[in-house]
Amino acid sequence: MTNSPAARDIDTSRPHSARMYDYYLGGKDHFDVDKVAAETVASAYPGIFVCARENRAFMHRATRVLAREHGIRQWLDIGTGIPTEPNLHQVAQSVVAEARVVYADNDPLVLKYAERLMRSTTEGRTTYIEADVNDPQSLLDAPELAEVLDLGRPVALSLNALMHFVTDAQDPYGIVSRLLDVLPSGSALALSHCTPDFDPSTWQKVTDIYNNAGTPVQFRSRADVTRFFDGLELLDPGVSVGHRWRPDTEPSATDAEVSLWTGVGIKP
Q: What is the pLDDT of residues 155-173, one digit of tens each?
């Protein structure tokens, strides 16, 4: 595990998206500045709490489907965020004990809590890398990744609620393509992405709140989210609102409350 940020102070002077997400999920690993910003978002979009919960639920279902139905035994989860149990490796290892998971995030607070991510089964492996999705090569070159993942065998690339923090100016499609290019046939992309499709005016307010707080965002349409899966074979039901992707129970939330496009694709 990388120790470089250990001496770096955590910036509590401005809100951080990972800590705001922790607040949406009902966690305790955030500061007052994050709570204020998150409640500002919630005042404009009360469904944010539903959206966050459905995002986690999608991650759980997608992980189980890939492990049970597609033989995936390795995951690269970027934009991990503050640990919330069950974490991805716990879900994967509940299906296949030998599952291996590499988590990556660029927030020093995530590093502080990364020990929670290290509690693997005896048969499996987990590790954490301090890395930024905007520098995919550095992430792929990290020695910790090579110690845990075999890139000669299928890997699930997990990008949950991450790519809307990568604007078009940062080349989001190029980043995802670069990450997928090094993965072999049979690998997968599991992705979730907030959208303004169901309530554009509300999501413009949310965009303004994040941008004004110093966190650039770009929420995308279904067509734009589908572009991330170019060249992949989408699993049924395709790119769907989060709570409608292979739900365990009959969905109760509205599409506008969830406002999250999700999908899983397999690399041919």
A: 999 999 999 999 999 999 9
Residue 30 has a pLDDT of 85
Q: Among all chains, which residue has been given the structure tokens 């998971």?
A: 101
In a domain, 254, yes or no: yes
* CATH number of the domain enclosing 239: 3.40.50.150
Domain assignment present for 14: no
Global pTM? 0.91
Number of domains forming the structure of the chain: 1
Asked if residue 93 is part of any domain, the answer here is yes
The answer to whether position 41 is within a domain reads: no
> What is the pLDDT confidence band of residue 7, given thresholds at 50, 70 and 90?
very low
Residue numbers of the domain that contains 188: 55-199+214-266
pLDDT, one tens digit per residue, over 209-262 is 989 988 899 999 999 999 999 999 999 999 999 999 999 988 889 999 999 999
